[in-house]
Amino acid sequence: MSSYSVSHLAYLESEAIYVLREVAAQFQHPCLLFSGGKDSICMAHLAAKAFWPARIPFPFVHVDTGHNFAETIAFRDALVGQLGVRLVVGSVQDSIDRGRVQEERGPNASRNALQTVTLLDTLSEHGFDAALGGARRDEEKARAKERIFSHRDEFGQWEPKHQRPELWMILNGRKQPGEHFRVFPLSNWTEMDVWQYIRRERLDLPTIYFAHEREVLRRDGVLLAVTPFVQPRDGEVVERKLIRFRTVGDATCTGAVESGAADLDAIIAEVAAARVTERGTRADDRRSETSMEDRKREGYF
Amino acid sequence: MSQSVQDMEILRFTTAGSVDDGKSTLIGRLMYDTKTIFEDQLEAVERSSRRRGDENLNLALLTDGLRAEREQGITIDVAYRYFATPRRKFIIADTPGHIQYTRNMVTGASTANLAIVLVDARKGVIEQTRRHAFIASLLRIQNVVVCVNKMDLVDYAESVFDEIVHAFGDFSSKLDVASTTFLPISALHGDNVVERSTHMPWYEGPSLLYHLEHVQIGSEANHVDARFPVQTVIRPHSDRYHDFRGYAGRVMGGVFKPGDEVLVLPSGFTSRIRAIHTADGELEEAFWPHSVAITLEHDIDVSRGDMIVKPQNQPRVGQDVDAMLCWLSERKPLQLGGRYVLRHTTREVKAIVRDVHYKVDINSLHRVEDDRSIALNEIGRVTVRTSSPLFHDEYRRNRMTGSFVLVDEFSNETVAAGMIR
Predict the structure, then answer these.
(1) Which residue from B40, B236, B240 is facing A280, i.e. has the nearest CB?
(2) First CA to last CA across chain A, in angstroms?
(3) How many structural domains comprise chain B?
(4) Where are the domains of chain A?
(5) pLDDT interval class at B363 (50, 70, 90)
(6) Do both B305 and B321 map to the same domain?
(7) Which long-range contacts (CB under 8 A, 24 or more apart) does B233-242 make?
(8) ipTM of the complex
(9) Where among B214, B244, B264 does a domain terminate?
(10) Interchain contact, B76 vs A161, CB within 8 Å
């Protein structure tokens, strides 16, 4: 590398910081969508870096399905306290109680799709005009076409065929009242980049990312943790296994992988050798070939 | 795949090809052979291939993302793909090649260090090949790689390859491209994509992946003309950093060091750099692509849209800009004399396109002097008048400070991309 070249992680970090600063400059009321997952932990860290030595100039929003891993919530509260940012929680349970959405029924019921309504309600209730998310283009094929500044109409919908062209580093955040943007500073990161960055920056993660023993059951090929929300059905066997999670989402649809990777080096080695994408452990993406595209059009993360 | 190596360079490249010349297959092949494709993705593709009745595993399905694309069997928008080898991380801007989507090629090319132009060995250099090469040169991509694909269908014949190299050379001599490399490949069978082909002993060059891993990049970043467009001002209002006033931005050219004498545009005030801050500590020097916060010795008024430069090396400052303009909107063509919002670096101004000097016929590269209309996917040379001065450079000297977009005042859509002459 020449003396004026930088490593890929430095490049990705500087790009993300640029995007975060554009958001602060171009929008009135931005917020950062924080799930407690590794991508949003990276986002929180990048936001802290982007505005250092000032505090992060926008609140975090957590859309809470009510089906959480306890470890994630504890982690969230500690991080928010440490960064000194305000936390806004949008509750799917509230949306259900208020009749905004109806709980899915049937054997594969999940609150995953319901989150979209809670998310959009929370954004409009607080007047947020930009929501920063940790989604990456390598995650899923519908995401591969997502812009960094992704325009949403007044219904929160994404129009994949009428996206604004995004050239050079010029980000166009102009909009009509009632419309908003989703902004993805990690667009050009891969899962491996995220893990390498976590190691480089020595970021703390919720413990469920690391190997631990837990009671699990296998449902439709996905290994689910037994929680108050996931109980064995007829014929399903509860086993105690050494597992970890590759993504952290709603406990009803986030699959675990059998793994002994107990630290970052072991996880990175595992990710490098992995033969299944991290979303391959997500039951929500298995519903159909275009399930992510369909959910995104409606306003999903 | 030893991706645990921490220090890789990033190479961003764009791929352009016509319908059916195997672009998606080539990308699928690169990702498949570098083991970027995972089992669940592969299974999904196998299922789809079977359902469609495809004979071979249809690698193109790996990259065709949206439902409409799978239905129509074409790629309709820019999609970004990622893969890595131990040497480099690659970002592909995968753009469709058919005639109505010049706009996507321009978009993909705007951030690329290298362009792959695909030519079907059976068809040779056709209009679309010329258009792709022209766009690569217009967007100042320094490296063009011409992949002559489907060599398997012409019996891996050297003469076919040579003919295409000559035909392309005749045409590209009129273009402004630093380096052009030619490769005979078969994306379907993997010849010369990752591994050297055994079918073409007459070809002595590297495989495509080897070339991508070793080609010299970075020469397009400007390390001479110091340019720092201010994004936002950081003021902590805390006891510890009471007087801190940091100008946050990304270095868009040149090198900045503490102690450097600087000039702020548009005010014209001069000062010195006190420090270059990052959350990880102060830097001894900052250059592209660093995102930093600069503090100055003097308390002068600096805000978003201003540019910090050096007194002895200033950009052009003016309200009349001569540019090549590519129209991106399908809804409305260019309105001569109409008002637009112009975004350039971190600056936003009003703008009027005052004149169209000529339009480029992007197939023949001829100038069309008497046609002043510019619609979707058309490119013309224009004069733009702005409501306040821009601090700009020639695009060929600096892609960041030499580029702008026009935004429709009402729909807020990005309607045109401009490259300053």
Answers:
(1) B40
(2) 37
(3) 3
(4) 8-194+290-298, 206-284
(5) confident
(6) no
(7) B233/B302, B233/B303, B233/B304, B234/A51, B234/A52, B234/A53, B234/A54, B234/B293, B235/A54, B236/A53, B236/A54, B236/A55, B237/A54, B238/A53, B238/A54, B240/A53, B241/A53, B241/A54
(8) 0.90
(9) B214
(10) yes
Residues B257 and B289 in one domain: yes
pLDDT at B319: 97
Asked if B199 contacts B121 with a C-beta cutoff of 8 angstroms, the reply is no
Task: Say yes or no to pLDDT of B260 above 90.
Answer: yes
Rounded Cα gap, residues A137 and A8, in angstroms? 16
Q: B36-49: b or e for each residue (b if 16 or more CB lie within 10 Å)?
A: bbbebbbebbeebb
Cβ-Cβ pairs closer than 8 A, A with B, add up to 197
CB contact under 8 A, A53 and B291: no
**B183, B75: one domain:** yes
Contacts of B44 in chain A (CB under 8 A): 289
The enclosing domain of B252 has a CATH number of 2.40.30.10
Are residues B141 and B24 part of one domain? yes
Contact check, Cβ <8 Å, B250/A14: yes
Closest-CA distance of chain A to residue B342, Å? 10
Instruction: Flag whether B222 is in a domain.
Output: no
Please give the backbone phi and psi of residue A249, each rounded to the nearest 5 degrees, phi first. Answer: -140, -150
Q: What is the mean pLDDT of chain A?
A: 85
Chain A: give the shortest CA distance to residue B129, in Å.
Answer: 22
For residue range B229-249, list pLDDT tens digits in order: 999 999 998 888 888 999 999
Q: Cβ contact (<8 Å) for B6 and A161?
A: no
**Superfamily (CATH) of domain A8-194+290-298:** HUPs (3.40.50.620)
- Assigned domain for B130 exists: yes
Give the domain range for residue B239.
Answer: 228-309
| B145 and B50 fall within a common domain | yes
Q: How far is A126 from chain B (nearest CA, A)?
A: 23
B2 within some domain: no
pLDDT in tens, A122-156: 998 999 999 999 999 888 777 788 899 999 888 87
What average pLDDT does the segment A263-277 reach? 79
Indicate the SS3 state at residue A136.
coil
Q: A185, A213, A295: which is closest to A249 by C-alpha?
A: A295
Nearest by Cα to B387 from B335, B326, B421, B343: B343
Q: Tell me: pLDDT of B64 over 70.
A: no
The CA distance from B223 to B201, in Å, is 42
Can you read off the two tokens belonging to residue A284?
């929500």
Among the partner residues B82, B107, B400, nearest to A138 by beta-carbon distance: B82
pLDDT band per the 50, 70, 90 thresholds, residue B325: very high
Confidence of residue B186 (pLDDT cuts 50, 70, 90): very high
The CATH code of the domain that includes B35 is: 3.40.50.300
* Residue of chain A minimizing CA distance to B285: A4
Are the beta carbons of A18 and B77 separated by less than 8 Å?
no
Q: Which of A43-47, A142-146, B273-277 has the lowest mean pLDDT?
A: A142-146
